[in-house]
């Protein structure tokens, strides 16, 4: 999003942030669908069905005309509902990914940055925002943990879903801030707000582990 702000301008990035906020709904569709599928299916079929869920929700959101506050309310309520209906499994700690974890994060991040900056103007702000919410690294986490056990995958994806409150607050702050503050200040304010929510999300996950 930062690079998009520099390349396309603050107004474009502000509208993209709104699209990213709504895109959380598509992201969480993936986490929920994959969690249920992995209890009965292999990783590759769970991934395909999860991606179908993501793209289906994203397509429904593309023509949406919700304002920032209403979008935030819809997202936060949806997250609460999704966490409530998540599969109940025995908590399992996923094994670390070692040196490959950092490599995967870097490759995924670079891929998303290149995709967004290359096609942003052609896609428009809403589609760019929805695309930024594509669960690329979440898919990697899900597959790696699913190969250990389905319960581990569900545990990790529930944690990811709880963490999306952080993303929601980040975009809620970033979208208007980009229109009134310097880009660096806008991102700094959004990050600060996100960190507060992240602390609360971690508390929730540990309490329910």
How is this fold's topology laid out?
Blueprint: H1 2-8, H2 10-37, H3 43-61, H4 68-85, H5 99-123, H6 125-132, H7 136-148, H8 150-180, H9 183-207
Assembly annotation:
single chain
Output the helix-strand order: HHHHHHHHH
Biggest sheet record: none
SSE class = mainly alpha
What would your notes on this structure say?
The protein is an all-alpha fold and 209 residues long. It has one domain (2-207). It is 83% helix and 0% strand. The protein contains 9 helices and no strands. The protein has helices at 2-8, 10-37, 43-61, 68-85, 99-123, 125-132, 136-148, 150-180, 183-207. Helix 2 (10-37) runs antiparallel to helix 3 (43-61) and helix 2 packs antiparallel against helix 8 (150-180). It is globular.
Summarize the structure in short:
The chain is mainly α and 209 residues long.
Protein traits:
209 residues, mainly alpha, 0% strand
């Amino acid at each position: 999003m930062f690079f998009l702000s520099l390349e396309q301008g603050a107004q474009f990035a502000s509208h993209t942030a709104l699209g990213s906020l709504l895109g959380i709904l598509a992201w969480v569709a993936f986490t929920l669908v994959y969690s249920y599928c992995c209890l009965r299916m292999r990783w590759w079929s769970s991934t395909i069905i999860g991606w179908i869920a993501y793209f289906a929700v994203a397509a429904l959101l593309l023509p949406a005309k919700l304002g920032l506050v209403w979008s935030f309310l819809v997202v936060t309520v949806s997250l609460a509902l999704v966490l409530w209906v998540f599969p109940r499994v025995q908590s399992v700690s996923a094994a670390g990914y070692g040196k490959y974890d950092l490599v995967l994060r870097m490759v995924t991040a670079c891929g998303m940055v290149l995709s967004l900056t290359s096609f942003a103007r052609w896609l428009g702000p809403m589609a760019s925002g929805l695309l930024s919410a594509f669960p690329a690294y979440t898919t990697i986490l899900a597959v790696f943990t699913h190969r250990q056990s389905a319960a581990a995958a569900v545990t990790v994806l529930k944690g990811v879903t709880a963490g999306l409150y952080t993303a929601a607050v980040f975009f809620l702050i970033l979208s208007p801030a980009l229109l009134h503050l310097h880009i660096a200040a806008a991102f700094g304010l959004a990050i600060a707000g996100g960190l507060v929510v992240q602390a609360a999300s971690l508390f929730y996950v540990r309490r329910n582990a």
